[in-house]
Automatic annotation (TrEMBL):
Protein name: Uncharacterized protein
Gene3D superfamilies for this protein: 2.30.30.110
Record InterPro entries: PemK-like, Plasmid_toxin/cell-grow_inhib
GO molecular function: DNA binding
Species for this entry: Termitidicoccus mucosus
Organism domain of life: Bacteria
Length: 117
C-alpha cells in the first residue's frame, strides 16, 4: 500500500467488494489515515469504481479518475454509496487520487448526501 505497506486515505486499490463478484475492481479508500494505520481496525470505507464505457460519461453521483490516479482506463467512482471492506481483501495498490480529484470527491459526497457545511 503506502510506504509502510499499510493502506492510506486516497489510495486506489484493487478489491473484491462483494465475495460473489467474479473480478476485483478499483476502489478509493476514504477512511481517515488514523483508522487505516491501526491494524486492529479490520474494516475500511471505500468508494467502488467501474470502468467508464467509451460512449458513457460520469453519472450524477460519479467522479471519474484516470491514469493520473494510477488507473489504466477512465473509471467512474460512485460517491452515493460507501462500501465497508475487510482490509485483508485488498490485493493490489494501484496509485493515489490526485489532489484536485480529492476535492471533487469531497464536494460530490457533500452534495450527494446533502451534508451541511
Amino acid at each position: 500500500m503506502s510506504t509502510s505497506n499499510a493502506p492510506a486515505q486516497w489510495d486506489v486499490v484493487k478489491v473484491r467488494v462483494n465475495p460473489h463478484d467474479r473480478d476485483e475492481h478499483p476502489a478509493v479508500i476514504i477512511s481517515p489515515d488514523e483508522l487505516c494505520a491501526n491494524p486492529h481496525k479490520a474494516k475500511l470505507n471505500v468508494l467502488y469504481g467501474t470502468t467508464r464505457r467509451p460512449a458513457g460519461g460520469a453519472g450524477l453521483f460519479d467522479v471519474t479518475l484516470n491514469g493520473a490516479d494510477g488507473l489504466e482506463h477512465p473509471t467512474n467512482f460512485d460517491c452515493s454509496y460507501v462500501y465497508t471492506i475487510d482490509r485483508a481483501r485488498i490485493s493490489t495498490h494501484m496509485g493515489r487520487v490526485a489532489h484536485e480529484r480529492r476535492r471533487q470527491i469531497g464536494r460530490k459526497i457533500i452534495a450527494t448526501f446533502r451534508l451541511p457545511i
